[in-house]
Amino acid sequence: MKSNDDKIKREIGLRIQTLRKQSGMTAADLQSATGIGLSTLQNYEAGLRHPPIKVIQKIAKVLKAPAAYIACLSDEQFQPEKCESPSLSGLVTIDNDLTSPAGTKASLAIDRGILKSRDINPSSLSVIYSQDELMAPTIQPGSQVVIDKSVNAITHTGIYALEDEHGSTILRHCRVVPGDNTVMLSTQRKAKENTDFIPLEDISRYRVIGRVVSVVNWL
Question: pTM score > 0.90 for this model?
Answer without folding.
Answer: no
